[in-house]
Amino acid sequence: MARLQNERFDPSVLFPGAESIIVIGLNYFPDQPEKMREKKKFNVASYARGEDYHHVIRRLLKRLRFFLKEINPKINGRICVDTAPFMDKYWAQQAGLGWIGKHTNLVSRQYGSWLLLGSLIINEKTDSYDKPHKNFCGKCRRCLDSCPTNALPDLNVLDATRCLSYWTIESKSSSIPKEISNNMNHWIFGCDICLTACPFNRFEKPSKTEAFKYRDETSLLETGQVLKLTEDQFTTKFKSSPISRPNLSGIIRNIKAAE
Questions:
Q1: Can you tell me the distance from the alpha carbon of 164 to that of 161, in angstroms, rounded to the nearest whole number?
Q2: Cα 185-187-192 angle, rounded to 5 deg
Q3: Intervals of the chain under pLDDT 70
Q4: Which residues contact 3 (CB under 8 A, 6 or more apart)?
Q5: End-to-end CA distance of the chain, in Å?
Q6: Active-site position among 10, 52, 82, 154
Q7: Less crowded by CB within 10 Å, the N or C end of the chain?
Q8: Counting beta carbons within 10 angstroms of the beta carbon of residue 198, is it exposed (0 to 12), middle (13 to 18) or buried (19 or more)?
Q9: Which residues pair with 227 in a beta bridge?
Q10: Per-residue b/e over 108-120, b at no fewer than 16 CB within 10 Å?
Q11: pLDDT tens column, 189-217
Q12: In 3D, which of 214, 218, 185 has the Cα closest to residue 44?
């Protein structure tokens, strides 16, 4: 995150000619089948229970860009979905979708903590603009106090080296440190603890996006049956899922640490 600071805060460096940013937030709050709640042994982050959101949001933004070019052929745009050096959460707050909570994630008054973000930078000004969203966290610190590994040591500070999402998804280490594994609370892919703690989740609504609906393959992780898969079977079943990111070896490492 320390690299490419100019691009992150100046979209015209990332996309020359930038004039406006269109930001979308897609609700992904899960509606898990009751039968799986009963059988579940391990936890998987809610955003990973369906299709990879990068693919879903990119498709939507491509359709939007095509639609805008039909209206004005001079419009060009760059799509950013959590991969380019672009501060998604910052621009989402500037666009009025929500505010950045003390846990460093976006919070929406309409959808709580459950929005996935994507942006389209375009080379044309628009007729009107939204205002930056007001921060409604107040004195609340439930998200900070909820983290079992103390990955949120202060307001708006995330220590990635203590975050369960880092260790269960991004880390290439062959093992997870004891001080982390002792507090995994059965999370084997990502973590929703600080998100779930937010009081604004009383406004949460089940997602209507079919691509984010609970996939049967997710149950293989939640029940531990994924341990019976070969590497090839794992790759095939989770080809279009975020769960493919740590590979089967990473999932096995996570399960061993969480048990």
A1: 9
A2: 95
A3: 1-2, 4-5, 7, 32-38
A4: 85
A5: 32
A6: 82
A7: N
A8: buried
A9: none
A10: beebbbbbbbbbb
A11: 999 999 999 999 988 888 999 999 988 89
A12: 218
